[in-house]
Amino acid sequence: MQTDSFFQQLFDYSRQVTPYLEGEVTSCPQDKTGFGLVHIDNDCSDDIQGLYLRLKQENPEAGAAYWLTRTWDLLCWQPMYLAFVSIYACHGLPPLKRIGQGVHANFVAGFSFENHQHTHASQEELIDMAGRDLQELYSFYRQSIDSWTRIRPGFTHHLIADGILGCLIKLQNFVPELTNDYLLAQAQLWFKAFQLPEKLLASLRVDDETGHLKLVRTSCCLVYKCEGRKLCADCPRHPDNKK
Asked: Long-range contacts: 146-155, Cβ < 8 Å, 24+?
């Protein structure tokens, strides 16, 4: 596979997941939104805090726990999605810790890489590489936030675990022929790569009605605290998930 074709595939598949996952390769990533560009080489504390404060202004009724959770989820969703698209659709991996992300007024979308570097290896090796890269990247995000408000590692571990399992659910939706046993085994590989507690795997189980995997998260995004919003279907607080 030619180098350029890997990234073209990555960008094409990413847009099929969501049009917000729009990428490019550029040697000089720039802030195209006016709200910041998050990159591991930059001091991003102010840009991330700015996002947090705009979320606070938009939903003052929701409270600090929601603003922080939402900020974290926005920072982490693109790198996690790209890890899954890269490995399962493109069978390779770009240097995820070098991703640049565009910060908008109240969300994070659009990404870039500095060059066409990528790696091909076995699926298990790629998952291990993705885990190392994303641990370093997410640690950078957490330290950036920790400079202006407390964010506990345990809190982020639950959100990362739910992010991984949510991506596996989406993978089964895109490729329904993948078996539950295969996906549960993949979940174990991802948790090992991220050094996450195996007990959190219990939130992913087979739904008796559909026969497919179902996720009941261990974390709550707290969106129900925003005026006019409801509990998510996979929320641990949802009545259907307490039966």
From this structure: 147/45, 148/45, 148/49, 149/52, 149/64, 149/68, 151/68, 151/72
